Amino acid sequence: MEENVFIIHPSEIVRKGLALILQEYFKMEITQLSSINDLNSFAAITNNLIIVIIQKGLVLPVETEERLRKNNQFFLISLSASTDTEGVTDGYDYDLNVLASNLEIQKLVQVIRKSASKTKTSNTDNGDLTQREKDVIRQVALGLSNKEMADKLNISIHTVISHRKNITEKLNIKSISGLTVYAIMNNLLDISDINPEELI
Amino acid sequence: MKIFTKDNKISSLVATNSNLIPVINRFGILLGFKEKTIEEICLEKNVNTDFFLAIVNTYTNENYFPEDELLSFSPLLLIDYLKTTHRYYNQYVLPKIERLLAAVMQTCAENCSSLKMISSFYQKFKTELHIHLAQEDEKVFPYIIDLYHNRVLTEGKSIRKYEDEHTSVEEKLSDLKNLVIKYLEPTYDPSAMVEFLNTLFQFEKDLFDHARIEDLILIKQVIRIEEELKTNAAR
């Protein structure tokens, strides 16, 4: 998961200073914006860890925040001035005080990373293909439809689809011609079984 | 991630992201910038600055989506740009990839059948890409140009019907890459393969950014025109 950090603050001194500290410790990808509305340009991000730091009291454009929250691990941090009341207020996930030490900033980032990795779905089953999956790949390469495969292998279409999904996840190969090449390269199929012209 | 503005020096743009060199070349802007800003060089080369910025920022930041005001330039500008890009792919990039692949094949002495499969697969990808580019040049772009000039909707035609074409080409390119990395027996000269793969990776990224520009800018502009015409017709 990629990390995107946005520092949105009208003061360049604050933006640059905070960015410098974060970069020094975390080598994070940081985008500095001067106005809240600039974040709208980034509303299309998906599947990332997004940390947005804004001046306490300000709110993000509602639609943009909803969209980013829906599609990402999203954390909104308020940057409070020394005179503000302490602690996290409604609408923000965390609070950072301008007087915070380097150590406190590091701690905050670690807390966020931890909470993001907890909810991350694991997808580590990257083993070899099962015998059944090899059967399916062979039929895919021969050009059979899901229905035909289900009949031939005596399994339901639903099972065929689930096998195909697993195959694609394991191999990281999606196209039918790509799977055909895989099948031949791994001796699941002989080149004489297919028409190479068709692949071309 | 940095959003470039018209006051930035054009040399800093290229220094940040050297992948932009072919992109700005397509605007007729060549290296040797001296101290010129983006605005100055655009003025000099008669390039719309907003348009230039929308393109380079979309290329540089994967997650950047141009704000509405940046979308105010004419779609014809964008079409010209995209056509130039297609020509660059057809005349320069694809032949280069093919040359490099042929060079890899030449270094294979025995057990070359898998490599031949890869080569066939590449041909398949190339054919599909050619069809895709030609479809845009011959159907999609003329549709947009016509819509822009004549301001009339045609029954049964809309830009949304032309969408969804990118994915299968991108899928094949990604498959090609994974087949070579994970499953191809290395019966070839590694250095020749490095050159081939580097060019392929670069092209994959370029193609991806190219598709994003079409989807995020051009299609959005056309949908806006279509909706305007629909509203006018309803009145």
From TrEMBL, chain A:
Name the Gene Ontology biological process terms. regulation of DNA-templated transcription
Family annotation (PROSITE patterns): HTH_LUXR_2
- Which keywords does the record carry? DNA-binding, Transcription, Transcription regulation
Q: Which Pfam families match?
A: GerE
InterPro entries documented for this protein: Sig_transdc_resp-reg_C-effctor (IPR016032), Tscrpt_reg_LuxR_C (IPR000792), WH-like_DNA-bd_sf (IPR036388)
What SUPFAM superfamilies would the database entry show?
A: C-terminal effector domain of the bipartite response regulators
Q: Which GO terms describe its molecular function?
A: DNA binding
Q: Which PANTHER family match?
A: DNA-BINDING TRANSCRIPTIONAL ACTIVATOR DEVR_DOSR (PTHR44688)
Protein name, as recorded: DNA-binding NarL/FixJ family response regulator
Q: What is the originating organism of this protein? A: Mangrovibacterium marinum
UniProtKB/TrEMBL annotation, chain B:
Q: Which InterPro entries match?
A: Hemerythrin-like (IPR012312), RIC_family (IPR019903)
Q: GO CC terms on record?
A: cytoplasm
Q: Name one GO molecular function term.
A: metal ion binding
At the top level, the lineage of the source is: Bacteria
Q: Name one Pfam family in it.
A: Hemerythrin
Q: Where in the cell is it found?
A: Cytoplasm
The alphabetical list of record keywords is: Cytoplasm, Iron, Metal-binding
Q: Which residues form the Hemerythrin-like domain?
A: 79-220
Nucleotide-binding is among the record's keywords: no
Q: Which protein is depicted?
A: Regulator of cell morphogenesis and NO signaling
Write down the species.
Mangrovibacterium marinum
